[in-house]
Design a protein that fits this description.
The complex is a heterodimer.
Chain A: H1 2-14, H2 16-19, H3 22-41, H4 45-58, H5 76-85, H6 89-100, H7 104-108, H8 113-118, H9 121-132, H10 137-144, H11 151-161, H12 166-178, H13 180-191, H14 194-197, H15 209-226, H16 231-245, H17 250-274, H18 278-281, H19 284-312, H20 335-347, H21 354-379
Helix pairs in contact in A: 3-4, 4-17, 5-17, 6-11, 6-16, 6-17, 9-10, 9-19, 10-11, 11-12, 11-21, 12-19, 13-19, 13-20, 15-16, 16-17, 16-21, 20-21
Chain B: H1 2-21, E1 27-33, E2 50-55, E3 61-62, E4 67-69, E5 78-79, E6 88-89, E7 94-98, E8 119-123, E9 130-135, E10 144-149, E11 152-157, H2 175-182, H3 187-225, H4 230-242, H5 245-262, H6 287-292
Antiparallel strand pairs in B: 1-2, 1-10, 2-7, 3-6, 4-5, 4-8, 8-9, 10-11
The chains are: A mainly alpha, B alpha+beta.
Chain lengths: 380, 300
């Protein structure tokens, strides 16, 4: 009988209840909050549900050596986490993004590319702020990439530059992407006059299939020659787009933009969530990262809108760009473009900015991949 | 009988937990010193022979019950005591074992010394499995023999001893450190990177501006080359100019909605499905309700 009691006492010590502390409970509450926000308010549910549940998985109190935790070599979660740690999930997601993205808006009005470039100031603004707060350049680069509003890129870069901060950076990036409709509109209204908000842009011209086929090839060659360190992201993005536009690889494009990207999204979400173990996540650094993430989104929106206003000084009447699409330079596709459209229609119900905003929006994807390559080149 | 079964299951569960907790195969002999006169001191202030073990895994490893020996014919020469927390080695961490021949000094003190020509062996908890072994070379005073990289790599006589630390010590400046030195505020990085981002996208803009112009010229030429009367050509050109992507998008959306609402198919699958729709039984036991259907929140 005594043995049985001893065994039960020993068993109790193995359980999560015995190993639990307040930190784990806080993280579990955060995971449940993510799931709640996704279900109740429909905020990025495809990401917040896997991340939220991943947080629950990662914060079950374990005793060391059980070989099930995400950081324990050879465990199932550790094997799945390799895709994040070694950075092969983000390029696969970029393949899917490429296969889903229609670059027509950009090809028909290529000057919108420059807005996508301007919004990347968010990345480097946050980089400078992070340095001021005492982060090392590698950490600052990983934090700054939150301003690119691109989850896979944020994971890819933080995995290379600051693996310890990856959980906080990924959660911050995806949280702010979900909050794009909340963060951006006040800044857009603040920086524009009513007259500017009413600018109607010329409808984009129809783009020929040949142009669409040429775009991924030239786009890839040019950007990859300039920033070879961005090869994994740029290569997969443009490759995915060629699958879509070539017209002869429909099955491959469907797989890349459908099942493949869904599978990788599930894996990346749940493993990133699981990597936010309480002892690594609940630190002052994480709070600072969240603050800097917000700052980077504000800077990106600011520079995007202000760049359009500046650009308009050189454009003839009739060719002017509505500055409300400046926010779309961050690459949160298509949410940022949708925000441009919604804010535009608040002032002119017939002014549909969605297609115009998609130009800088997809340019932002290219721009953030190039910026990521620069960070890797200088800091990795 | 049932209770016995439960106890057996519980026992097996506990044993399996115990087994899972052991990842002793990840342990490596990482560095050691034979003649220590002014290197590391133990907690009694004595310089002695030491052996550094390294946990190469990402999980904590408990080495209690494992063995360390300098005799291949006696693999159970020294057993790490059980019940001491210091035998739990954290992920990617090191532990120093003192080979002073006096195990009563503490948990991490062996009952043997070792000498050049002998072998050091780390043996698993079964007393048979040799997890790691290394031949002891001739070393001078305060010289250590170490792996070139922690837990792996060739053995070499180390330039500097690195007890309780990584064997590879990077003395050269990393890129990040260099950036911190030359660009403490991040302005150089920001301006350099932004100029590259702009250059890349401006080049892309210029190329696609030209491609777009060529495409428009080609389209106009095509219209002009057709046999249609001039008035028709002009009308077609004007219509093409005026018809933007928005029109096409609106047409596509209308067709998509029509297709969705009417469940219209472009191509029929030619598959006939017999669907059993008898719902007289309780839905609680129905696969239709419990397995096949995914709940869907309908938002307005």
């Amino acid at each position: 009988m005594e043995n049985i009691i001893n065994n039960l006492i020993q068993f109790w010590q193995y359980t999560g209840f015995a190993n639990c502390n307040l930190q784990y409970l806080i993280m579990i509450a955060i995971g449940i909050l993510f799931i709640f926000l996704a279900i109740r308010f429909d905020w990025e549910p495809m990401l917040l549900i896997p991340i939220g549940f991943g947080i629950l998985i990662g914060n079950i109190p374990l005793f060391a050596g059980l070989n099930v935790g995400v950081y324990e070599e050879g465990s199932v979660f550790n094997i799945l986490y390799q895709g994040v740690q070694r950075g092969f999930y983000p390029p696969l997601i970029f393949l899917g993004i490429g296969a889903m993205t229609d670059f027509s808006a950009l090809i028909s009005n290529p000057k919108l590319l420059l807005i996508g470039a301007a919004a990347q100031f968010g990345i480097f603004g946050a980089y400078a702020l992070a340095l001021l707060l005492g982060f090392s350049p590698s950490e600052a680069g990983a934090i700054g990439i939150i301003g690119g509003a691109d989850g896979p890129t944020a994971i890819f870069i933080s995995g290379r530059l600051a693996p310890d901060l990856m959980g906080a950076i990924a959660v911050s990036a995806y949280s702010y992407m979900a909050l794009v409709p909340v963060i951006q509109p006040p800044i857009m209204r603040l920086l524009t006059t009513k007259k500017e908000r009413l600018i109607r842009m010329r409808p984009p011209r129809a783009v020929s299939p040949t142009e669409k086929k040429i775009f991924p090839i030239i786009g890839f060659l040019l950007t990859a020659f300039i920033v070879p360190s961005g090869l994994p992201l740029l290569g997969m993005l443009f490759f995915g787009n060629l699958l879509k536009e070539s017209g002869v690889t429909r099955r491959l494009a469907n797989t890349a933009s459908g099942p493949l990207v869904d599978i990788v999204t599930i894996l990346i979400g749940v493993t990133v969530g699981a990597s936010t173990q309480a002892d690594q996540f609940l630190q002052l650094k994480s709070v600072l990262i969240f603050g800097l993430g917000a700052g980077s989104f504000v800077i990106a929106t600011f520079t995007g809108v202000m760049f359009v206003k500046f650009f308009n000084l050189f454009l003839k009447e009739g060719n002017k760009i509505n500055p409300l699409i400046g926010n779309a330079g961050v690459s949160a596709v298509p949410d940022a473009a949708r925000v441009s459209n919604n804010v535009g229609r608040e002032y002119d119900d017939k002014n549909y900015l969605l297609m115009h905003a998609m130009g800088p929006n997809v340019a932002g994807v290219i721009g953030s991949a190039v910026a990521a390559g620069m960070l890797l080149g200088f800091l990795a | 009988m049932k209770q016995i079964k439960k106890l057996v299951v519980l026992g097996l569960l506990l044993v399996s937990f115990g087994a899972a907790a052991q990842q002793q195969t990840a342990m490596r002999i990482n560095e050691f010193m034979t003649i220590n006169t002014n290197d590391l001191q133990n907690e009694y202030g004595v310089h002695g022979q030491w052996i550094e073990l390294f946990n190469s895994s990402y999980g904590t490893v408990d080495i209690s019950g494992c063995y360390l020996t300098n005799d291949p014919n006696n693999l159970k020469k020294y057993m790490f005591p059980k019940g001491d927390l210091i035998t739990k080695i954290k992920p990617r961490q090191f532990v120093i074992i003192w080979a002073d021949g006096n195990p009563t000094n503490g948990t991490l003190y062996t009952n043997f010394n070792f000498a050049p020509g002998e072998e050091l062996l780390f043996v698993g908890g079964d007393g048979k499995t040799i997890i790691d072994r290394v031949k002891v070379p001739d070393l001078q005073e305060n010289q250590s023999y170490a792996r070139t990289a922690d837990g792996k790599g060739e053995w070499h006589i180390a330039q500097h001893t690195t007890a309780r630390a990584a064997n590879i010590t990077h003395t050269e400046e990393t890129k990040s450190q260099k950036m911190a030195r030359i660009d403490p505020y991040g302005w150089i990085m920001a301006l350099t990177a932004m100029s590259v981002v702009f250059t890349a996208l401006v080049l892309l803009y210029l190329i696609f501006k030209q491609i777009g112009n060529a495409s428009i010229r080609r389209s106009r030429k095509k219209t002009a080359a057709s046999n249609a009367p001039e008035a028709v050509k002009a009308a077609v050109a004007a219509a093409e100019e005026a018809t933007g992507g928005e029109t096409y998008a609106a047409i596509a959306m209308a067709m998509h909605l029509f297709k969705e609402e009417n469940d219209a198919h472009d191509e029929e699958s030619f598959v006939v499905t017999l669907s059993h729709t008898d719902r007289t039984y309780s839905p609680w036991s129905s696969k239709i309700y419990s397995l096949r259907q995914l709940p869907q929140i309908k938002r307005k």
